[in-house]
Write a structure and sequence with these properties.
Length: 581
DNA sequence: GCCGTTTTCGGCCCGACTGTTTTCAGTCG
C-alpha cells in the first residue's frame, strides 16, 4: 500500500472516530498522521523498512504500528472493524456545511439516519427540527446543503479559483474606507487546488464594505454576514463556458490588526498552530488581532515583524505548511525562493505541427513579447497520432523552419526539441539518429497508463537513462481533480535522474502541476535539476509557467535548481555539452 | 494518540458566527 492510500485510511479512521464521539485529540492525532504521511517526500516503503517512522513528527507508537501494518499487509483489522461499526452514509453527511460529527451522531442515534436519502426524508417531514439542539433553521440549512452538495464540487484548480477571486477583488478594491486588501488562504499559498476564497480587508468602517460584498455580481447566496466576517456562495462562468460555484469569505479588521489577520487567514492551519505554540513559549499569545502577553504587545506593521517577534526569518506563504519551515527560519537556513522574473525562457511547447493552436512563428513572437529570450519547441512524436504526432519527414520540415526563424528574429532564439513518446517498453518513439538532430528531448508517457507500478517504474527509468533524453515530461500523468497519475515509484525515477543528470519537468499546465511540490522538495534534496515547462498548446498557454514557479516555490526551489533560469547562451552551451557525451 | 526549556501525565490554538438556547454547544477555518 502506498503513501496516498495509507494517508487516506488514517484520515478516514480519524473521521470515523469522530463520529463515534471519541476524544477530539485522539481523532486529530490520526488526521495529523495522515497529513505527515501525505507530505512525506521519500518513499513510504523505505521509511517503514528502515524503521524510521517514529522519527516523523506526530507518529508515535500506535501510528507506527498502524502504518507498518498497512504498508506490509495492505489492510488493518482495526480499520475494518471501525468501518463495519460506522455506516458509510454518516461520512457522506459530514460533507453538508453546518453538520459536524456531533450533529451527525445525534441524527443517527435519535432518528436512525444513516444515509443522505433518509436525511432528506427526515428533514422534509420536519422530524429533524424537533431534535434537541436542532431547530427550523438548522433543518432548512441541511436541506439547502443537500441540494448544493450535488451541484457544488469540492475543490477547484488554482487557475479557476484565481479567476473567481479576481472578480470579487475588483469589486472591492477602491471602495471608500478600504485601506489594505489581499487574497489569503490557500490561493496565497498557491496550492494546486482550492476549496474556498478568503479575502482580507483593513478598514475603520466595515459595515458598508460588507454590504457591497454580499451584493457583488455572481453572489447567489449569503451564508453569513457580520461586522468582521461575511460568507457568500459565488458563481462564475469560466472561459470554458462551464459555471463554477465556490464559497468566499470576506474578513475586515482594523489596519493595526491587518498583519496578524493576514498571517492568520493565509494559513496553513498547521503552520498557524505551530506559530501559536511558539508564541506560547515566548509567553505571548498570537491570534488574528495581535501578538501580545500579559504586560506587553509586540507592534507589527507587517508579517515580517510577526516572524521577527518570534525569533524567525520571514517565511513566504508558499512554505507555510509546517513541513520544516519554522526550524529553518529559526536557523536562518530558509531557501531564497525562485521568483517569476527568474525565468528566462520555456521548453516543451506545441505548435500547429502537432496539436497546438498557433504556428511556430506566432508562438515565438508571443514568447518574445512576454519578455522571454528563448522558446523551446516540443511537438508530439509519430506514435501519438491522436495528437497529430510528427513523422521524421515532418520533423525535418519543422527544423528547417526553426533555422529560418532564428535567422530572422532579433534577440530571441528558438530551441529545437520534441516531446518524444516513451513506448511501452521504455524505448523512444524516434531513433537515436533523429533524436540527435534536436537540441533537447522531452520524454513523456502518453500510453498504457494502467501498467503495474514495477513495469511503469522500469519503463520510465529506462527513458530517464537514455543518453539523448534531456528531460522527463509530466512524471505521473495526473490530471488534477480528474485522473490519478499512473503508478510509479518516483523515488526510483528521481534517483535515476540524479545519477544521469536528466532533468525533471515541472509541467506548469494548471491541469497537471506535475511534478508536485512535495517531490520537488525531494528532488532538490537529491540534487536533481528541474525545469519549468508550460506545455503550452497556444500562445495563451505560455503564461502557464507562472503556475510552475508557484509549484517550485512550494517545493523550496531556488533559482539555481531550475534550468530555465539560465540565459539562452548558457542553455545552448549545456545542450551542446550533453550531446557531446 | 502524541509529546516534553512549566516533561512521562496532563495538557493539547483560537475566535467568529449560527442557532439554539436563556448562557452555550457545535461548526468552521
Amino acid at each position: 500500500m502506498d503513501r496516498d492510500q495509507v494517508a487516506a485510511i488514517l484520515s478516514e479512521i480519524g473521521t470515523l472516530l469522530e463520529l463515534q464521539g471519541e476524544s477530539p485529540f485522539r481523532c486529530n492525532a490520526y488526521h495529523n498522521g495522515a497529513r505527515v504521511i501525505s507530505q512525506l517526500e521519500e518513499d513510504l516503503g523505505s521509511v517503514v523498512r528502515e524503521g524510521r517512522l517514529s522519527s516523523l513528527p506526530g507518529i508515535g507508537e500506535t501510528l507506527r504500528e498502524t502504518i507498518t501494518t498497512l504498508v506490509n499487509t495492505g489492510h488493518l483489522p482495526f480499520y475494518d472493524d471501525l468501518k463495519a461499526k460506522v455506516p458509510a452514509g454518516l461520512v457522506q453527511m459530514l460533507r453538508i456545511p453546518g453538520l459536524g460529527p456531533k450533529k451527525v451522531k445525534a441524527l443517527h442515534e435519535q432518528l436512525g439516519i444513516d444515509t443522505l436519502e433518509k436525511l432528506q426524508v427526515a428533514c422534509d417531514s420536519g422530524q429533524v427540527a424537533k431534535l434537541r439542539g436542532f431547530g427550523g433553521k438548522t433543518q432548512d440549512n441541511i436541506l439547502q446543503g443537500l441540494k448544493s452538495l450535488s451541484e457544488m464540487g469540492n475543490r477547484v484548480r488554482l487557475d479557476q479559483a484565481v479567476l473567481v477571486a479576481h472578480g470579487l477583488v475588483e469589486g472591492l478594491r477602491g471602495l471608500p474606507g478600504v485601506k489594505r486588501l489581499e487574497v489569503c488562504g490557500s490561493i496565497r499559498r498557491r496550492r494546486e487546488t482550492i476549496k474556498d476564497i478568503d479575502i482580507l480587508v483593513s478598514s475603520d468602517d466595515p459595515i458598508p464594505i460588507m454590504e457591497v460584498f454580499v451584493k457583488l455580481p455572481g453572489v447567489i447566496q449569503v451564508t453569513g454576514q457580520g461586522s468582521t466576517k461575511s460568507s457568500v456562495v459565488v458563481q462564475k462562468i469560466m472561459p470554458s463556458g462551464r459555471s463554477l460555484t465556490m464559497n468566499a469569505d470576506l474578513r475586515i479588521v482594523s489596519d493595526a490588526q491587518y498583519p496578524f489577520a493576514l498571517h492568520y487567514f493565509t494559513g496553513s492551519k498547521e503552520h498557524g498552530i505551530a506559530m501559536r505554540l511558539r508564541a506560547q513559549k515566548y509567553g505571548l499569545k498570537l491570534n488574528e488581532y495581535e501578538l501580545a502577553g500579559d504586560a506587553k504587545s509586540v507592534a507589527c506593521k507587517d508579517e515580517a515583524d510577526i516572524f521577527r517577534g518570534l525569533g524567525l526569518d520571514y517565511i513566504p506563504p508558499e512554505l507555510r505548511e509546517d513541513t520544516g519551515e519554522m526550524e529553518d527560519a529559526e536557523k536562518h537556513t530558509l531557501p531564497k525562493l525562485i521568483e517569476y522574473r527568474d525565468i528566462r525562457g520555456v521548453f516543451h511547447n506545441h505548435t500547429t505541427y502537432s496539436d497546438g493552436g498557433n504556428t511556430l512563428q506566432e508562438m515565438a513572437e508571443a514568447a518574445q513579447a512576454m519578455g522571454l529570450s528563448y522558446l523551446g519547441i516540443g511537438d508530439h512524436s509519430q506514435s501519438l497520432t491522436i495528437a497529430n504526432g510528427l513523422t521524421p519527414e515532418r520533423v525535418q520540415a519543422q527544423l528547417k523552419e526553426i533555422d529560418a526563424l532564428n535567422k530572422k528574429m532579433k534577440g530571441f532564439r528558438i530551441f529545437k526539441g520534441t516531446e518524444c513518446d516513451i513506448l511501452a517498453d521504455g524505448s523512444m518513439d524516434f531513433d537515436d539518429d533523429l533524436l540527435s538532430k534536436f537540441d533537447y528531448v522531452v520524454a513523456s508517457v502518453h500510453s498504457y497508463f494502467k501498467m503495474s507500478r514495477e513495469e511503469m517504474t522500469e519503463r520510465i527509468v529506462r527513458a530517464v537513462r537514455h543518453p539523448r533524453v534531456t528531460m522527463l515530461g509530466h512524471a505521473t500523468g495526473r490530471l488534477l481533480l480528474q485522473r490519478d497519475g499512473y503508478q510509479v515509484d518516483l523515488e526510483a525515477v528521481l534517483k535515476a535522474a540524479a545519477e544521469t543528470g536528466t532533468m525533471i519537468e515541472i509541467n506548469a499546465d494548471p491541469h497537471r502541476l506535475d511534478l508536485d511540490w512535495v517531490h520537488c522538495k525531494r528532488a532538490r534534496a537529491m540534487g536533481v535539476m528541474l525545469v519549468i515547462n508550460p506545455d503550452a498548446h497556444s500562445t495563451g498557454g505560455l503564461a502557464n509557467y507562472f503556475f510552475g514557479v508557484d509549484v517550485a516555490r512550494r517545493g523550496w526551489l531556488e533559482k539555481q535548481n531550475v534550468f530555465n533560469t539560465l540565459e539562452a547562451d548558457a542553455v545552448a552551451k549545456e545542450f551542446a555539452r550533453r550531446k557531446a557525451l
